[in-house]
Amino acid sequence: MLSRVANALYWMVRNVERADNLARMLEVNEQLLLDVDHIDLPRFEAFWRPIVQSTGDDTLFEELYPKGRSAEIIEFLCIDKANPNSIRSCIGQARENARTVRDQLSEAIWEELNGLFLFLNSPDADALLSANPQHFHETIRKSANVFNGIISSNLSRDNAWDFMELGRNMERADKITRILDFTTFLPKEGAEASLIDHHWNATLRACGARSSFQIRFRNHPTPQNIIDFLIFDRNFPRSVRFCIDSADAALHRISGSQRGSFSNEAERASGRLLASLAYGSVDEVLETGLHDYLDGLQTQFNRIGDEIFREYVLLPDSDESVPPIPGESISAVVAWQIQQQQQQQQ
């Protein structure tokens, strides 16, 4: 498969997954605030800021919105085109990737993605977000579910499928850790501290994990059990371990190598992370500290993403020109890739 096609499929699905999970994170916060009997404006504003912090876009947000009002945070995360990680921007990027590989997709996939793109760029989307944010987020999630369902039922299990599986699971693993990390930004003292317990239940709902969690833990939603389930469960499709296992399997199908071995650095990195998750425990997480442990996972996700890019997207004769890639972010890789594509088009 051409590296251009593989990269477009990978990022098409990854951007849809990013928009879906951002909508889920916003829903967590809205559900939290429904449990508040009374909260003044400054505290209300403070409960929206952690979402921007957890997505890593706080610097850009402060540049665009110095006052940082809650309405501005919602606009920034949902429909602001100046934010490359807003829901509107993610779907726009996914649609552009899909446009370049239309021959690899069914009409149903294109129609669903293009329909969501057209909705998000219409006045109806702005009006719905203003009048009923919860319904706005539900619309994004339902469309993402339909998009993924069409892919699952319509496409052959070939390399195109594998690259889409790879993108979906890498993004999903990253965003599950960010949803979990949201708790570490909440106030630890005062009246708001009681909301942390409500947050854990909201987290399960946002991850679509409530029913599966109840089956395993018999409705005992302690923080330890929720962390254990969302990070280490081997069967729940949104747990970090399940996602990395699926990504590792996709990588080995693409290369043709046997699982348990590796033929490139991406497989080595994914296998090492999968082993640590397979033998890890919630006690290890709590000993390290939830935020630090999740931050370490995100660094490893970025490392795998970097190696996927080097192995399957970079042309062999351009490898020496790639800039150093910071371990904490893949943005440098993406920026370099966009720059190279623009130069080739000139």
Could you explain how this protein is built, in words?
It is built from 18 helices and no strands. With 346 residues, the protein is mostly helical. The chain folds into two domains: 154 residues, no CATH class; 157 residues, no CATH class. The longest helix is centred in the N-terminal third of the chain and has 32 residues. It starts with a helix and ends with a helix.
Provide the descriptors you would attach to this structure in a database record.
globular; 72% helix; 0% strand; disordered C terminus; mainly alpha; 2 domains; 346 residues
Could you give a short description of this structure?
The chain is 72% helix and 0% strand. By secondary structure, the chain is mainly α.
